Amino acid sequence: MSEIQHLQPSMSADFDSRNLDWYIDRIVQSLVFIAGISAIIFIIGIFVFITMEGFGFLLEDFTFREFFLSPFWEPSDEDAPEYGILALVAGTASVTGLAMVVAIPFSLGAAIFIGEFATGKLRESLKVLVELLAAIPSVVWGFIGLSIMNPLIIDLFDVPVGLNVLNAGIILGLMAAPIMTSIAEDALKAVPDRYREAAEALGATRWQVIFKTVLPAAKNGLLGAVLLGVGRGFGETMAVLMATGHAVNIPSSLFDPVRALTATIAAELGETAVGSPHYQALFTIGIFLFIITFLINLSADLIVRGIRKG
Amino acid sequence: MFAESALNVRNKRVQNLYRILFLMMTVLLVIPVIIILSTLIAKGGSIISIDFLFTDPTNGMTAGGIFPALLGTVWIVAVALLASVPLGVAAAIYLNEYAGDNWFTRMIQLAIINLAGVPSIVHALFGVGAFVIFFGFGTSILAASLTLAIMTLPVVIVSTRESLRAVPQAFREACWNMGATRWQTIKRVVLPNAVSGILTGVILEVSRTTGETAPIMFTGAAFFLPFLPQSVFDQTMALSLHLFVVATQVPGVPENLPYGVALVLIAMVLLMNSISIAFRMYLRGKKKW
Amino acid sequence: MVDMSLTAAVPETVVESAVESPIKLQVSDVTIKYSATPALSGVNLSVHEHEIFGIIGPANAGKTSFLKALNRMDTFNSNMTVEGQIHFNGLDIHNLRNIYALRSRIGVVFPLPVGLPLTIYENVALSPRLRGINNKGDLDIIVERCLTRAALWDEVKDRLNSLGSLLSGGQQQRLTIARALSQEPDLLMLDEFSIAVDPVTTMRIEDVLKELKKDMTIILVTNLVQQARRLADRTAFFLEGQCVEIGITEDLFTGEVEDQRTRDYVEGKFG
């Protein structure tokens, strides 16, 4: 009892009262929380809005069989419009596939060189170059496909038109390579140095260390890099619109023109009436693209996260 | 003895071969940039002049300059930044300074990764459905900029978060120990030491926003407009879309015109990226702790 | 203002006291855990106003965790839980409406000095500014007084605008002390402050602490038993997460001890 009476209540009072700073802190916390969840809101928003716009088509004209299995995309046929995306999927897949054939060896090779061989200034400058390569806008890449690659392919392979799977695949490969390089390099960097030291202590040479130790240890990260490259290829719009030739076609050779899912939306959305079946069908392609890229990004993230944990 | 050293020599040779192989691959990756840049300069350099930058296109866009497109890009980028920088910085502050390490935070991170991974044309569809139609902005700078803002939000969040993370935890704890609230700590110690890193990310975002085409095609950018935008509710021309238009949509364009447009666009983008990279390197050399 | 509920919360058993001043800090049955692992268990002690209360003990005894609990740093570490009751100025610190105000009245100096990436001047002016003091003249006075007390003024008075985070380790430690003093704390807690400081400066700071005792209560965690002997009125001995003994400091060295381990420790038989 006696001690309590000696206390100075005035001194302790402020512990039990909230001042302006306390409230400001709370308000800021709420505001940044809203900003923090905005990414979730936007992802849900994207799905909700494109589904809303494409919903009429999904209810009325959509049949799973026609949409996914028909190679005919003829939405403007007045008598019997047909909404089959098979040829568009084939177009996207062929271009993306070729892009990966181009990008995987080069980006992996570049990542190994930058991560395992290059040092100092050389390493820094290569990384800067790769970063600049990644910054070139896709419409510029499309223009390059159209104006530089196109005549080049016509000359080299003696074909009438140079806008085809080959052209778009190479362009897309060059676009995806820088991103894949930097993610692959991160994956190599994540392999602890003691792995390398242990292998070197056993007498392995540099390339043996890389092939037998570093690459196997980094394989999840490398797979994640490839998946993100695939996602990029699937979603790329302007470059494939300009470089593929834009013809609905299931390709049988590298020199066939094709049309991609994304390019179809970009080319046709401006010419359709809001709310028409064609307009809604384009949004339905959007839903399909959203789901596919969502799944690709999700699995890439899970795989990359896997290595960090392990 | 001899056998072993022979093996060593062989191994050395193989190692050198691999080294050269990987170097070649890296060089092959980088060479296209050089080829592309030199072709653009060779074919488009002749058209670039002050006049080209500051006059209107004439003769059905087959002649004249690119001024309305240039100005439109500035409009779109500026409005997009106004929306995405505060939002992105705040989101990064939440993630780095307030959020715990739990499933909810992981959900947000996953959403950010996916926001960056959604195809640009899907962002365009979202922009049409949400901003043009639902919120009634029509095809306008506002709709186009908001679409781009959401699309490039991950760039701001990720770069801001990285610069916040670079501020040592000990500084925050020292402040908290003195009775500073979290916000006082952020305002007085964390943000001042992260602001230059955030700026680097913002420049990077400007570069990204400048080059994007698909998201603005149906939300606010027009092929050709005879007037300049007066407010954010107007449509505008944009440099990236202008390149697409003169390269594919307009017949009878002289060859050097699209090259010139492409050169201006790529120069803007690469310049801003280089500034961002140079700034980052400068900051790395100038540590405060 | 003297609230009856506070009286009820304070246990009746009064720990043996050498000082006849009122109780500043009452710690009742406090256990600190990280996840499920206890760092300190069942501590009962009280600290009186205007005393220097020493805490000695080897590494991992729970000394630093104890200080963190007093400053409510458990709110920043989701693994850390504090059970039991801590009363500061008679108020239960786990039921405060504004723990920032509590922290602003408690100055802490940790073993590893942290100079904030602000100028030396702003390092010391930060706490007054947080309290709303922005007048340049007032701040100048506070900065000079605190730096002088922390035995740093003479070395830095000509470069108050250079970065505090770039000072040497020993200077940063004194800057940290100056910063703690700028809080005008009720309670000053020092955790092995002399680790980063040379012996001469340590002696100067020790003299300052003796002076400061008139204005505040001090808890001195130290790994140097002789430092505790020089400064502390009473001292607690922590060992392996237990508070082994609390007594008048001199008694631990020369008088009766309850636990032989205390005497063994102060005589340097283990540590």
UniProtKB/TrEMBL annotation, chain A:
Gene Ontology BP, a term: phosphate ion transport
Pfam families named among the record's database cross-references: BPD_transp_1 (PF00528)
UniProt entry tagged with the keyword Protein biosynthesis: no
Domain ABC transmembrane type-1: 89-300
CDD domains from the UniProt entry: TM_PBP2
PROSITE patterns the record matches: ABC_TM1
Keywords: Cell inner membrane, Cell membrane, Membrane, Phosphate transport, Transmembrane, Transmembrane helix, Transport
Role, per record: Part of the binding-protein-dependent transport system for phosphate; probably responsible for the translocation of the substrate across the membrane.
NCBIfam families (alphabetical): phosphate_pstC
Protein name: Phosphate transport system permease protein
Source taxonomy: Bacteria, Pseudomonadati, Pseudomonadota, Gammaproteobacteria, Chromatiales
Automatic annotation (TrEMBL), chain B:
A cellular component term, taken from the record's GO annotations: plasma membrane
Domain of life: Bacteria
Localization annotation: Cell inner membrane; Cell membrane
Keywords: Cell membrane, Membrane, Transmembrane, Transmembrane helix, Transport
Keyword Transmembrane helix assigned: yes
Membrane topology summary: Multi-pass membrane protein
A Gene Ontology molecular function term of the record: phosphate transmembrane transporter activity
Residues annotated as transmembrane: 20-42, 62-95, 107-126, 132-158, 214-233, 259-283
PROSITE patterns in the cross-refs: ABC_TM1
InterPro entries: MetI-like, MetI-like_sf, Phosphate_PstA
Domain ABC transmembrane type-1 stretches: 70-276
Pfam families listed in its UniProt record: BPD_transp_1
BP GO annotations: phosphate ion transmembrane transport
Similarity section: Belongs to the binding-protein-dependent transport system permease family. CysTW subfamily.
Protein name listed in UniProt: Phosphate transport system permease protein PstA
Lineage of source species: Bacteria, Pseudomonadati, Pseudomonadota, Gammaproteobacteria, Chromatiales
UniProtKB/TrEMBL annotation, chain C:
CDD domains associated with the record: ABC_PstB_phosphate_transporter
GO molecular function: ATP binding; ATP hydrolysis activity; phosphate transmembrane transporter activity
Keywords noted in UniProt: ATP-binding, Hydrolase, Nucleotide-binding, Phosphate transport, Transport
Domain ABC transporter: 25-265
Domain of life: Bacteria
InterPro entries referenced in this protein's UniProt entry, alphabetically: AAA+_ATPase, ABC_transporter-like_ATP-bd, ABC_transporter-like_CS, P-loop_NTPase, PstB-like
Signal sequence residues: none
EC number: 3.6.3.27
GO biological process: phosphate ion transmembrane transport
GO cellular component, one term: membrane
Cross-referenced SUPFAM superfamilies: P-loop containing nucleoside triphosphate hydrolases
Official protein name in the record: Phosphate import ATP-binding protein PstB 3
Species annotation: Candidatus Thiodiazotropha endolucinida
